[in-house]
Amino acid sequence: MPQDNPQRKVKSQLQIVLALELRASGASYEQIGKSLNPPVSAPRAWKIVQKGLQTGRERMAETAQNLIQLQLNRLNRYRLKLEPNASDPTVVSTLVRVMERECKLMGIDAPTKIAETMPDGSPIQTQEPSLDFGKLSFEELLILEALNNKAAGDPAWDRSIRDFGSPEHERSYPGKPPSLLTAFVRALPSVEDRAGAATGS
Known about the structure:
Order of helices and strands: HHHHHHHH
Distance between the termini: 67 Å
Number of helices: 8
Radius of gyration: 27 Å
Oligomer: single chain
Structural class: mainly alpha
Number of strands: 0
């Protein structure tokens, strides 16, 4: 059974941290890949960033679970102090609220059901089709991410893909047929044109 290499693990963690920092600063995946040591391809840089984001989400979930447990411990102490005086109606009311809070934190309460209907009383179809992003290519994922950023109102929504249509990119891959991503970027208005449209000039 292969043993973990501590040095490799530390190097991998440093790679993830650097990749996340570069991504947060607006670097494209191609730029991130070239900045890592050793350099990696843009698809590999994307995977490194996604791994870092997933690790962050898992740590946040663990932290949230710990906070819930702390709240439950605190509520349990309150309940133990109140129970000897349970004959007092005011104490009973407080105990009920404490127990309601415990049930919510532990997810014991059944969710409130709200009937969703059309004006004619027929049910609303709320089931959404499942999406399989594994069927998209790396370039299609980058385009999708950029469009999501645009829909969210990010003024620099195309910063991660703009380099694919730049002269520098063409010099790096001379004679290579335009890819889907390159064609998409070339069809975008320039930064100057968008700035002029925004100011009405």
